[in-house]
């Protein structure tokens, strides 16, 4: 027999259902999550004052859990600001422009460079770092700006962000909600990210070539404003550092991050240890580059860049904290915040629901895969990609408990679906950075991405079914 479900269990499940509905209708979830925490706290403590305090404490718990992730993103973005303003990014990327001799080579070059840069700098900063350099080169060989935006989106906001193997922000969120190590999610996501990435980018490339040949997509130049602004940033003398110094600094940046990767591989660093290594390196580079480029104003500029970075980090993760605070209550956070008020045999609210479903609903691998793909896609509809992946991890925890295995694969599948839909490939308002750099409509980029992404999700979900069987 399964464990007896209490009012706490039913209240938690009711809030999850309402959250899914809220995301389906593209509404914000902060109020609902806060109300859900209050209801759970009232049922657990039977005290109004303790319940009100529980709201704050649950937010604080989520913030502590996410702090390292927020910090690493903020520091990386701060460093990327220095790279852009000093022109070091141009030196790092410009060698790849020589590979762009045909539209096909331009598509794959832009995509692969975007993917690599996004692993280390995250996609939104990466768009600014590489777009102003690679866009004119791609347009000159006949690849339309719309296709450049598609390539940057699919490889950066799609492949790189859905795996997030270097910074590990996405797998930490889903792993925490699922109650498993970050490394398990990363390992399970590798075959799914490869399948999703290959199917999506190849499909998009085939459609671009088809439409270029038929004339439905013309190899027009970017708007004059876009090209002139892009080329202006590279004019000699417009940067505070000379070209030889920028080349040395670019080599130092690449070398230090390469050393980080080697150290992470040799010492098997994952999760917080890997984050700390990357964050420390980024901070040292931020200080070095700022002092080198701003000299007399270096001390003040370091703080300015850090403030810019933290503004970005809090803007991205601000909506995540309330929903993460609620979903952490489904596992370890509940007992820490409210004590042992669940039944003695309880393994946590989510685990209890999983056990109950296992005894009452015949959930199998295909149904579980479809459930996680759908849940991930729904949570991505808000255009963040991150605000709902805690829900995905929680659902994966529940479904895997009912199936009896496969929690890491289910978590990875839900993470991939959520980020591909909401992280910047389908939802128009999440596509604005790449669309703006390329001078095209975000709605047109979303329309272009629709068939490739849906095709990739279908194939990846089927692949997950086989991996679970």
TrEMBL record:
Source organism, top-level taxon: Bacteria
Protein's recorded name: Uncharacterized protein
Keywords: Membrane, Transmembrane, Transmembrane helix
Transmembrane segments: 6-25, 37-60, 66-83, 104-122, 128-155, 190-208, 248-267, 274-292, 312-330, 395-420, 426-443, 450-468
Taxon lineage: Bacteria, Bacillati, Bacillota, Bacilli, Bacillales
Region ranges (Disordered): 215-236
């Amino acid at each position: 027999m399964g464990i007896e479900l209490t009012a706490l269990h039913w209240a938690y499940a009711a809030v999850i259902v309402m959250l899914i509905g809220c995301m389906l209708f593209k509404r914000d979830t902060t109020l609902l999550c806060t109300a859900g925490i209050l209801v759970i706290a009232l049922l657990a403590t039977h005290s109004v004052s303790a319940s009100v305090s529980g709201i704050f404490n649950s937010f604080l718990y989520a913030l502590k859990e996410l702090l390292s992730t927020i910090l690493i993103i903020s520091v990386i973005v701060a460093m990327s600001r220095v790279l852009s303003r000093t022109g070091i990014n141009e030196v790092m990327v410009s060698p790849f422009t020589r590979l762009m001799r045909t539209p096909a080579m331009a598509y794959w070059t832009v995509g692969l460079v975007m993917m690599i840069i996004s692993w280390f700098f995250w996609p939104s900063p990466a768009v600014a770092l590489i777009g102003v350099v690679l866009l004119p080169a791609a347009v000159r060989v006949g690849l339309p700006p719309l296709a450049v935006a598609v390539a940057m989106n699919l490889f950066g906001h799609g492949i790189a962000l859905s795996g997030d193997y270097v910074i590990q922000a996405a797998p930490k969120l889903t792993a925490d909600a699922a109650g498993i190590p970050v490394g398990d999610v990363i390992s399970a996501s590798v075959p799914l990210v490869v399948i999703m990435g290959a199917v999506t980018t190849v499909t998009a490339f085939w459609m671009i070539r088809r439409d270029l040949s038929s004339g439905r997509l013309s190899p027009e130049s970017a708007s004059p404003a876009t090209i002139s602004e892009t080329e202006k940033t590279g004019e000699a003398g417009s940067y505070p550092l000379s070209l030889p110094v920028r080349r040395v600094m670019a080599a130092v940046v690449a070398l230090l991050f390469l050393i980080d990767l080697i150290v992470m591989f040799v010492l098997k660093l994952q999760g917080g240890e890997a984050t700390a290594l990357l964050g420390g390196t980024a901070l040292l580079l931020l200080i070095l580059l700022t002092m080198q480029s701003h000299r007399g104003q270096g001390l003040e500029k370091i703080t300015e860049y850090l403030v810019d970075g933290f503004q970005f980090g809090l803007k991205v993760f601000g909506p995540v904290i309330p929903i993460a605070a609620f979903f952490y209550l489904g596992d370890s956070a509940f007992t820490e915040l409210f004590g042992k008020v669940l039944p003695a045999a309880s393994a946590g609210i989510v685990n209890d629901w999983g056990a109950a479903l296992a005894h009452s609903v015949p959930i199998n691998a295909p149904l579980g895969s479809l459930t996680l793909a759908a849940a991930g896609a729904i949570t991505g509809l808000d255009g963040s990609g991150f605000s709902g992946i805690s829900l995905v991890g929680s659902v994966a925890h529940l479904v895997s408990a009912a199936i009896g295995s496969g929690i890491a694969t289910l978590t990875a599948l839900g993470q991939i679906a959520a980020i591909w839909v909401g992280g910047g490939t389908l939802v128009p308002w999440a596509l604005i950075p790449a669309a703006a750099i390329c001078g095209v409509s975000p709605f047109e980029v979303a329309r272009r991405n629709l068939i490739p992404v849906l095709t990739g999700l279908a194939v990846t979900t089927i692949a997950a079914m086989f991996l679970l069987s």
